[in-house]
Design goal:
heterodimer; A: alpha/beta; Glutaconate Coenzyme A-transferase; 13 strands; 16% helix; globular; B: alpha/beta; 8-stranded mixed beta sheet; 3-stranded antiparallel beta sheet; 6 helices; 19% helix; 27% strand
């Protein structure tokens, strides 16, 4: 992604503001995994992992890792009081059954209709879909955390995605290093511009029309 | 198999268990990102030289972790899985045409395995319609919605990792190492369990048993994990 840790932390801290007490939340790998660091400690959230954990806590300290207690990315985690373990079919039954309030995922491209492409670049890397399709299609709210442009400096927010889709019309909110953009019924709504960028910068680097809410930010 | 009802011990040697895992067989494995893969059985398969396997399981592990070792050693002709991103050797073998890979959404793979073990022909799923997931699959309309028919998966041999087993094969698992193991345990013609600890029947609380012993054919004692984890 080429974004410094400061920028990634800022994006993660912005995403943390979307998480409300009582939510069941699944985090993707990469920047989404930084989000819990920015939650107020008293916020009661159940973090869900596809490999069968509900109620993940902070990362263990060095030497305290348990090889049999990992998140879906294979990294050691801890659990909070009230946590539970279950098999992978149950983990995904929760997702498809609509028990997940939010998922925060990475993205390669997002369209103005909220289509998400985040799993494959044809001819380059074919890692496989993992649990991404089910999360994107079935979580009640989908937030995408990604760099605003790709490594060639081209927009990743487009009228139509060019890469194979993970799911159609699934994205609710996009948080990038440049802006916070809501996917609304009328189109993409520019909600916030991140410093040091201007609205003009954001528009230039976005491949789709951006609406501004009346009385909203310039 | 009549012995099953007599609670005869299913504990056997690694050598005997491996005699059921042969070239060309369909081998299903429990585990997710290496966690919950059975290390002693994997080591045994590598040493025995078994090849041309059709592997079914969640992911391709890491190059030197878990089931990834079998993939890296080029013992697999076909892999039915959800993700190979953590094992670049798997990607290389796929691109070179040395290993066929069929991708399936993660929860749907779990359901296909569950269906296989539960005597169903498949499951109806609305995941991945319009993507490459639907290629080659039948569709049905039901209640005004379109579903893919995701066929059940079944294996010649299923290999499973458990924390504790009793002689009869009742199993309990270890935290997130449970993952796909209870599903995989049901979907093999022969199910072989590698257990960290083997106890007498009655030593496990029936309320706590996750996999009932009727699914298990053989139990071998684990020698423990023989790889270093990615985060170490």
């Amino acid at each position: 992604m080429g974004m410094g840790i400061e920028v990634r932390n800022r994006m993660a801290s912005r995403a943390a503001k979307e998480i409300k007490a009582g939510m069941v939340v699944n985090l993707g790998i990469g920047i989404p995994s930084l989000v819990p660091n920015f939650l107020a400690p008293e916020t009661e959230v159940l973090f869900h992992a596809e490999n069968g954990v509900l109620g993940m806590g902070p990362s263990p300290s060095n030497g305290e890792e348990d090889a049999m207690l990992c998140n879906a990315g294979g990294f050691p985690v801890t659990v909070i009081p009230g946590a539970s373990y279950f098999d992978s079919a149950t983990a995904f039954a929760m997702i498809r059954g609509g028990y997940l309030d939010m998922t925060i995922l990475g993205g390669l491209e997002v369209s103005e209709k909220g289509d998400l492409a985040n799993w494959v670049i044809p001819g380059k890397r074919i890692p496989g879909i993992g649990g991404g399709m089910e999360l994107a299609e079935k979580a009640k709210k989908v937030i995408v955390l990604m760099s605003h442009v790709n490594k060639h400096g081209e927009p990743k927010i487009l009228q139509e995605c060019t890469l194979p889709l993970t799911a159609r019309g699934c994205v609710d909110l996009i948080i990038t290093d440049m802006a916070v953009i809501e996917v609304s019924e009328k189109g993409l709504l520019l909600k916030e511009v991140m410093e040091p960028f201007t609205e003009k910068d954001v528009r230039e680097m976005t491949g789709a029309k951006l609406l501004v809410r009346e009385g909203g930010k310039k | 198999m009549e012995a099953k009802m007599e609670m005869q011990s299913k504990v056997t040697t690694l050598e005997n268990a491996l005699s059921f895992i042969n070239d060309g067989c369909v081998l299903m494995f429990g585990g997710f990102g290496g966690v919950g893969n059975p290390p002693t059985l994997i080591k045994g398969i590598l040493q025995k030289g078994t090849k041309s396997l059709t592997l079914i399981g969640n992911d391709a592990g890491f190059p030197e972790i878990g089931i990834g070792k079998i993939v890296s050693a080029e013992r697999v002709s076909k892999l039915i899985t959800t993700h190979i991103g953590s094992n670049p050797i798997a990607g290389k073998l796929m691109v070179e045409g040395k290993m066929e890979v069929e991708f399936c959404p993660q929860g749907i793979l779990a359901e296909r395995i569950r269906a296989g073990g539960a005597g169903l022909g498949g499951v109806l799923s609305d995941i991945g319609i319009g993507s490459m997931i639907e290629v080659g699959k039948q569709k049905v309309e039901m209640g005004g919605k379109t579903y893919l028919i995701e066929p059940a998966l079944y294996a010649d041999v299923a290999i499973v990792h458990a924390k504790k087993a009793d002689y009869f094969g009742n199993l309990i698992y270890d935290k997130s190492a449970r993952n796909t193991n209870p599903l995989v345990a049901t979907a093999g013609k022969i199910t072989i369990v590698e257990a960290e600890e083997i106890v007498a029947p009655g030593m496990l609380d029936p309320e706590s048993i996750i996999t009932p012993g009727i699914y298990v054919d053989m139990i071998v004692e684990s020698e423990g994990v023989d790889w270093k984890w990615a985060w170490e």
